[in-house]
Amino acid sequence: MAVISQADLLSRLKYFVVRTERGGALVRRDPRELPRRLRVLLLAIDGGQTVELYVNTLNGFGDISELLIELLALGLIELKPPGEMYNEPRRSEEYSVLNELLDDSRFDSQSTADMLYGATVPGSFDDMLRTAQLESPGLELPVARPPVPVSPAAQKAQVESLFDLLEKVRGERRGLRHKLGKMEKMRARGLQLEQNNHRLKVTVFVLATVCIALLVTLALVLAKH
Questions:
Q1: What does the CA dihedral 54, 59, 61, 64 come to, rounded to 10 degrees?
Q2: Closest to 31 in 3D by CA, of 137, 108, 120, 130
Q3: Which of 27, 53, 182, 217 is 20 to 30 A from 63, alpha carbon to alpha carbon?
Q4: Residue 17 CB neighbour total at 10 angstroms
């Protein structure tokens, strides 16, 4: 049976997509071990985005839900509920891969073109399929499809999708930084108010002490008369 059905995946749109240790090791080793239909999606996963973002943004690559299911079946990614993400360590190398790949200074380089559209390392994908089958007997595995040439129009749509994804992710991070900035200002303001309140309490205490002393002095003067 499949790791997860398409209906199940689409019912978890708010879940976060995270690379497994195996997926991270593959990215560090050579993403071209994956077929090109899967490798760019694996590169795009940074551990901080939801199923919904990938499905709605990377439409230049076709049905992203099917590709996510394939990566899940291969054990290269996993889905985590939002509540589990708060205590997750963030691995900095996951954020840099796609940014570096699409960096203006090297975007037209042969190495980038090879990473996006180059052939799969011979035999590597078959090995992944066999490993997944051994780990999960009876698993319905993704089909090792023959490579299909990507037309210039399709390449353009895919690249536009990738830039759209980066822009949305950066926008999310800008929004988060803005919220953190506001929280920091509110915290500083709270500390200032707390200090002012402390000074006010001290002033009131001193004034109360002076008033009591004056009243005692006045009472003594009146008592002598």
A1: 40
A2: 120
A3: 27
A4: 26
For 213-222, what is each residue's pLDDT tens digit?
888 888 888 8
DSSP string, 16-76: EEEE-HHHHHHHHH-GGGS-HHHHHHHHH--SSEEHHHHHHH-GGGS-HHHHHHHHHHTTS
Model-level pTM?
0.66
Rounded Cα–Cα distance for residues 151 and 33 (Å): 22
Asked if 64 contacts 55 with a C-beta cutoff of 8 angstroms, the reply is: yes
Q: What would the DSSP string read from start to end of 161-207?
A: HHHHHHHHHHHHHHHHHHHHHHHHHHHHHHHHHHHHHHHHHHHHHHH
Instruction: Name beta bridge partners: 151.
Output: none
